[in-house]
Design brief:
Elements: E1 2-3, E2 8-13, E3 16-21, H1 32-47, E4 53-58, E5 63-65, H2 79-98, E6 103-107, E7 110-112, H3 114-121, E8 124-128, E9 132-134, H4 148-154, H5 157-166, E10 170-171, H6 172-178, E11 183-185, H7 190-202, H8 206-219, H9 224-239, H10 242-252
Parallel strand pairs: 3-4, 4-6, 5-7, 6-8, 7-9, 8-11
Antiparallel strand pairs: 1-2, 2-3, 9-10
Helix pairs in contact: 1-2, 2-3, 8-9
InterPro entries: ClpP/crotonase-like_dom_sf (IPR029045), Enoyl-CoA_hyd/isom_CS (IPR018376), Enoyl-CoA_hydra/iso (IPR001753), Enoyl-CoA_hydra_C (IPR014748), Enoyl-CoA_Hydratase/Isomerase (IPR051683)
Protein name: Enoyl-CoA hydratase/carnithine racemase
Family: Belongs to the enoyl-CoA hydratase/isomerase family.
């Protein structure tokens, strides 16, 4: 099933929902329309039972997403309306983590500024070898204020500061070594690598994945004692799940589990 209208294309096939930012001439920049349509597409993917994994990408081969649309910075409706529009980007980052299905960024080209934030908000990320990642906002007199919250959670203090203060781009291989990506492959192998990774996720219990992802993000900012206490409660919930019983039984019986996603 494919929807081609607007600036975000939605295609559901084989258990995967492919969300494509379709503004190649603007390097798939994040306009207000893109933000709204990505939120709607995530809601749709979450609601469709056949979808087990969400894949996010950009149209073309040059850019995954170049970040905010500088041509629309002024906005309409006054300062407060423009500020509220910027907050929509933060809501999208949170939504990518809050959606009940695992997310994979298919980084087909450069992921810069807010575009890098989208990569970091996805659970996993696979990039083409020619892609570059970075936070070049400083070069136009801006600072990567919002996506910086995710960058701080992915890399150490010195490297994060170097990225945001210098604005230098890094090749995909360097981003992989830094922990910003999970895989880097030649451009011709990108779809195969993304499909393989998404297929692994699709083959897991969706109920347990949803419980585990929520626990991961909730515990991330907790002090260690509180995190351990919280995670022990989540483990108690986990072991009561039908799929936990099925998984243990299948292991003992030496057969593949048959998930009911409950």
């Amino acid at each position: 099933m494919e929807a081609g209208e607007g600036v975000v294309r939605y295609q559901a096939q084989g258990g995967q929902a492919l969300l494509t930012i379709d503004r190649p001439k603007a390097r798939n920049a994040l306009s207000p329309e893109v933000l709204r349509e990505l939120m709607a597409a995530l809601d749709r993917a979450e609601a469709e039972a056949a979808v087990r994994v969400v894949v996010l990408t950009g149209a073309g081969e040059k850019a995954f997403c170049a970040g905010g649309d500088l041509g629309q910075m002024g906005g309409e409706g006054g300062f407060l309306a423009t500020h509220e529009g910027r907050r929509a980007y933060g809501r999208l980052l949170l939504r990518l983590q809050d959606v009940r299905k695992p997310t994979v960024a298919r980084v087909n080209g450069h992921a810069l500024a807010g575009g890098l934030g989208l990569v970091l908000a996805c659970d996993l990320a696979v990039a083409a070898g020619h892609a570059e990642l970075g936070t070049p906002e400083i070069d136009v007199g801006l600072f990567p204020m919002m996506m910086m919250a995710l960058l701080q959670r992915h890399v150490g203090r010195k490297r994060a500061l170097e990225m945001v203060l210098t604005g230098e781009r890094m090749p995909a291989r360097e981003a992989l070594a830094l922990g910003l990506l999970n895989r880097v492959v030649p451009a011709g192998e990108l779809d195969t690598a993304v499909a393989a990774l998404a297929g692994k996720l699709a083959g897991k219990s969706q109920a347990v994945l949803a419980l585990g992802r929520r626990a991961f993000f909730t515990a991330e900012d907790m002090p260690l004692p509180a995190a351990l206490e919280y995670l022990s409660s989540q483990l108690s919930l986990n072991v009561l799940a039908e799929d936990a019983a099925e998984g243990v039984t299948a292991f003992i019986e030496k057969r593949p589990p048959k998930w009911n996603d409950r």
